[in-house]
Amino acid sequence: MEELKGKRGIIALIALIIITIGFLSSLIKLTGRVNPGISEVYNALAYLVAPNNLATWVYDWRGFDTLLETAVIYVGGLVSALAIGRGVVQMKKCKQESPVTSKPLEFRTESLTVILKYLGIPASILLLSYGIMVVTGSSTSGGGGFQCGVIMTSGYLLAAILYGKDTPIKFGKRFIIGIGAIGLGGYALLGLPGYLVTGYWQYNIGADVWGLAPSILHIIFGDPFRLSLILKEGVFYSTPGIIPLINIAEAFNVIGAIGLIYFAFLYGWSDEGE
Amino acid sequence: MIESISNLWSIPLLVIIPMLTAIIVNFLYDKAIKPIAISSAIVILIISIISPYGYHWFCGHPALNPETLTFTFNPNIFGYKLSLEFIFGPLQHIMIFISSLILLFCVILSTIGLTKHQGPYIALLFLLFMSSAIVIMVNDLYHLWIAVEIGSLIVVGVAAASGTSISHKAALKYGLFSAISGAGLAVSLALILGLTGFANISDAIMYLKQFNIGEMSTVLYIAFGFFVLSWMYAGGLAPIHPLKSEVYGASYPHATTLLQAQSKLMLVAIGIIMLRLFGMLPFVKEVMIFLSVITMMIGVIMALIQIDFRWIIAYLIISHSGFVTLGIGLGTYEGLIGGIFQAVNDIIYMTILLLCCEALFYFGGKTSTKEAYGIAKKSPFIATATILGAIAASGIPPFNGFQSEIILIQACLKEGFPEIAVLILMVSVTTFIALLRGIYRIFLKPPELQSYDDSNVDLPKVLIIGIIIFIVLSIIIGIYPDIVLRFIIPVVKEVLSI
Hints:
The complex is a heterodimer of chains A (274) and B (498).
Chain A lengths: L5 H25 L8 H7 L7 H9 L1 H22 L29 H23 L8 H19 L9 H17 L2 H7 L16 H8 L4 E5 L2 E5 L4 H25 L7
Antiparallel strand pairs in A: 1-2
Helix pairs in contact in A: 3-4, 4-7, 4-10, 5-6, 6-10, 7-10
Chain B lengths: L9 H19 L4 H18 L3 E5 L4 E2 L6 E2 L7 E2 L2 E5 L1 H24 L5 H19 L3 H20 L4 H32 L4 H10 L6 H19 L5 H10 L2 H26 L5 H21 L4 H22 L2 H30 L12 H4 L1 H14 L6 H15 L3 H27 L16 H19 L2 H14 L3
Antiparallel strand pairs in B: 1-5, 2-3, 2-4
Helix pairs in contact in B: 1-2, 1-4, 2-3, 3-4, 3-10, 3-13, 3-19, 4-5, 4-10, 5-6, 5-10, 6-8, 6-9, 8-10, 9-12, 10-12, 10-13, 11-12, 11-17, 12-13, 12-16, 12-17, 13-15, 13-16, 13-18, 13-19, 15-17, 15-18, 16-17, 16-18
């Protein structure tokens, strides 16, 4: 924070005040006047896909946005591991300084309390199981692939912090990177069936809201996830189509990306095993 | 002519192929990277050449016609889009073609010239191309934000990949501050979304034109302020220039070719969006012109005082970004043509200089102008190519830089800014002086005897081919500018609704 002292600090403070005033005054002006715009149409049609509007918004109406959001997490993992030393490159023909790398953390697990020692493993397993439960309810609840990934990597991190190198939940480097690759690659490729059949990338052929897909594909991708909403007015059926599959892929991606960050920061990086 | 189809086949492939290639080469780490990466880059280049024009509505949702309340998949019938819209038109055609050509040379040079473990690095190059392609094709504010966000993160990775302490410092500094850029764009997007209700840029503009926003124009001004912040960070405009120039200087020159192309694409794409969204507000163009002039001046002055050839080029990239934004900021027919044309030309001649700089790594990697290395004697070709690149960058005919700079000068004079026209001339002359100083010390001055290494160096053939291709492109465009202008003029007419 040394840079923020003196003239620079004063300029930064003034800029921050101006930005804050401008932003807050805009929010005040917008209060009660927010234009719903296209969201009204989104909400009106959402029932045709998943019962949970959020899932429909994030993975269908704006499904390709979410692919790129997921890619941000993947790139975050890739760049963080690179900063630690994975994949640092040098020119063959000239001498350069040695690459900056990070050493593994020192674990002092001998001071672990009895409670942590014996409850750590069940807590980690519980977190892993909870993550799986969350992703299975992605189209009916607020949960989804991202949450699942974060919860499961939390379980991994908990075990790694408590037991250090002797952690019972061990993932190899290739395994973690492979999980991430399956996740992001899987999400991206889930757009392929819609593209081949309708020409639109990531068209949800399972839900087939606009009747563009052949009925056989609608059945293949839609029926396994068909849901029924039982009301006194009657029973209503809908299917989220490829949304549950996208969520599983996203969970894999998040586990791979965040797991890689944890792994690299905890254990440092050497090219052994890659 | 843009076809009236909303499911153009090429658009998803230009995004998904680089993404999948990045995933594969990152996983493979060392093995079989070369054939996969090079063949993917060739496929991308071919797609960028042969693709027709049109739209792609991702996830396949139609547009809602507000008058008839019917849904349509025809992009030529007005409707509020439910889908995320990408456009591949003449502007995208020329920009993505040049970026994919640079990507191809970047990937080949990486596989030839770098030590092992190239997987993550080459993955980042493909993702860098992907983010550039998205920024120039997308017609959606929310997706633009994500593309800028992912682009910033990739820039951090590319800079850090060289593994030196300088590159790490530059990367982390840029990463930290670029978070502000992404956040700024997100805030701007939130305000526009709150005001109009549409993330689709064309729909939001249509709404702003149709309805009198009256006192709510303050909200638009604040959104513009945040947009400008993001524009400055993405393109490295003053006063953010030190962050971006450090990234350019600390990365390997072949990667900088792609980084500077990404910056130019972002400057053009975000600049045009700003002009379309906020162009009707007073003082908007003045702010854009002011930032451009400051960037031009600071960049070239900083280039003059550098003692490393890489850093001279890094600051000149910044300075010439000011040319691009100046043209867009003028917002006139000639200004926009000049600005976008300058972006294309700038990418080409800076690529020549950067590839020549890459060649210096094969002569030991010394790029400081403090010592004389007599490279011209060892490689007359590289010395000649560097001089030609410097001539092109300085706006001297018959190279491409001349054509766009003369259009910009004419645009400034027409708009009543003779002083800015003079400034463009001064920046061009100073560019030549800054480059010539470096060229003389590194290439032309006889080497000091004690440090002279007389051994022959074999440069990779692909490096020489790359330099020749970009010099030829520079000369062809310089003699026959219509070859590029015919892609730019329709876009400018559309932006200005002529």
